[in-house]
Amino acid sequence: MIDDDADVRQSMEELLNSAGFRCEAFATAEDFLRASRPDEAGCIILDVSLPGMNGLDFQQQLGRAGLRIPIIFLTGHGDIPMTVSAMKSGAVEFFTKPFDEERLLRAVYQALYRDRALREESVKIATVRRRYELLTPRERQVMGLVLTGMLNKQIAAQLGTSVITIKVHRAQVMRKMQAESLLGLLKMGEKLR
Question: How many domains is the chain partitioned into structurally?
Answer without folding.
Answer: 2
